[in-house]
């Protein structure tokens, strides 16, 4: 499941727990991202992965990609917070191939990630 995390008005933030489905993306993440784009014309995104990556359904990963592509030019900053070294490395490399800045953070650096996403930390 995906839960919304309270964040500043210029950020959408989410926490993944347990099993994550495409429906979680469609009903929680996609509407929040759309609303943020309508409000500020960019996306500042924080995603705390508090479950094993194996708990994401394949269709959830596809929905994630669809959301990213739908708003391709709107990405400003995205932080993925996880203890998975592979996910952190992938996120850091992602900045080289898509618009916006993407950074991976360890869970212990959650506060730093949130500050960075909202633009208060370079």
Automatic annotation (TrEMBL):
Coiled coil: none annotated. Transmembrane segments: none annotated. This is STAS/SEC14 domain-containing protein. It comes from Flavobacterium psychroterrae.
